[in-house]
């Protein structure tokens, strides 16, 4: 988020910057595509060099916030406390970005939200770290405005520019040459109730749900199914979670789905079956498929799969449904 706009503002061709790392311009049009973290670091470093602008990564964070996490961001904003919001982000962040380790560490009356990026150690991380930690600061401020003046950002690396250049981009207090890369704030702020999700976050969610609709309103059951698909790996694909994400209470959502001739349980089973079929075709182990779909016992998954398909998963895989091998 923000890469293309920031490149244009610096009179740089973003497509050329991506191509230098072997990345397609498709990533600019489809924000849900995943790219390697090493590649992201290379792109940021190269673009900062071409632009002769050492704060490129930091300025990218101006375009980012809770919306960057898509449905996960909206889910986090619905927690009872900021601590709960951070737990959700920390627990499920690997679905958004694998290769990042986050830890919330008590330190006296302070909390340190530490960040470690697991990329090739030969790659300079300064651009990536400044973008990521200031993004984290933006998220904290969205969750509760009190974080704005009481949070400092610690970086292990030295400053890349003069203090006034940093302060022109972010109001966060920045500390360089520290022991850890972390957000530091008073522990008591974790008990704050998160602010309601902003219109920007809600609008992003709506765009996420409508992305394949070519401008047409999608049926409610499509939106529910898309959220189920996104949230199944987190274990949060429940009526309790999804109804408020769509601006409804549970009874209203159930009633409207019934009016469309379906129900939440049916949509959940349909999505589980779709994910299970795809995983089995890709030769994932049946145990892994069951666990990823939220089944604690293989027997429960096997019974469910037989209900969906008419045969157990083992037989389904070895029948004509198995992928054909071709030279």
UniProtKB/TrEMBL annotation:
Instruction: Please name the SUPFAM superfamilies in this protein's record.
Output: Homeodomain-like
Keyword Transcription in record: yes
User: Which GO molecular-function terms appear in the entry?
Assistant: DNA-binding transcription factor activity; transcription cis-regulatory region binding
Q: Where does the HTH araC/xylS-type domain start and stop, copy by copy?
A: 222-319
List the GO cellular component terms: cytosol
Q: In terms of domain of life, where is this protein from?
A: Bacteria
Biological classification of the source: Bacteria, Pseudomonadati, Pseudomonadota, Gammaproteobacteria, Oceanospirillales
- Which InterPro entries does the UniProt record give? AraC-type_N (IPR032687), Homeodomain-like_sf (IPR009057), HTH_AraC (IPR018060), Tscrpt_reg_AraC-type_HTH (IPR020449)
Q: Which UniProt keywords apply?
A: DNA-binding, Transcription, Transcription regulation
The UniProt record lists the keyword Secreted: no
* Transmembrane spans: none
In its UniProt entry, what is this protein called?
A: AraC-type DNA-binding protein
């Amino acid at each position: 988020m923000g890469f293309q706009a920031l490149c244009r503002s610096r009179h740089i061709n973003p497509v050329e910057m991506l191509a230098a790392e072997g990345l397609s311009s498709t990533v600019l049009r489809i924000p849900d595509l995943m790219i390697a973290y090493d590649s992201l670091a290379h792109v940021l470093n190269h673009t900062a060099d071409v632009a002769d602008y050492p704060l490129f990564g930091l300025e990218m964070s101006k375009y980012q916030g809770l919306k960057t996490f898509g449905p996960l961001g909206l889910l986090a904003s619905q927690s009872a406390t900021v601590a709960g919001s951070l737990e959700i982000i920390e627990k499920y962040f690997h679905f958004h970005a694998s290769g990042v380790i986050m830890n919330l560490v008590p330190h006296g009356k302070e909390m340190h939200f530490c960040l470690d990026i697991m990329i090739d150690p030969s790659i300079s991380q300064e651009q990536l770290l400044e973008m990521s930690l200031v993004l984290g600061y933006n998220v904290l401020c969205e969750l509760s405005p009190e974080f704005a003046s009481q949070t400092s950002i610690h970086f292990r690396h030295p400053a890349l520019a003069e203090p006034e250049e940093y302060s022109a981009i972010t109001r966060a207090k920045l500390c360089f040459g520290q022991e850890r890369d972390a957000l530091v704030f008073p522990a008591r702020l974790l008990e704050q109730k998160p602010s309601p999700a902003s219109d920007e976050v809600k609008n992003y969610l709506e765009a996420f749900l409508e992305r394949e609709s070519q401008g047409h309103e999608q049926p409610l059951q499509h939106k529910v199914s898309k959220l189920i698909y996104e949230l199944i790996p987190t274990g949060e694909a429940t009526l309790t979670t999804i109804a408020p994400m769509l601006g409804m209470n549970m009874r209203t959502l159930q009633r409207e789905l019934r009016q469309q001739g379906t129900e939440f349980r049916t949509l959940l089973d349909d999505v589980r079956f779709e994910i299970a079929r795809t995983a089995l075709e890709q030769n994932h182990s049946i145990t892994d498929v069951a666990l990823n779909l939220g089944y604690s016992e293989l027997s429960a998954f096997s019974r469910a799969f037989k209900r969906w398909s008419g045969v157990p998963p083992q037989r389904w895989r070895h029948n004509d449904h198995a992928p054909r091998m071709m030279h």
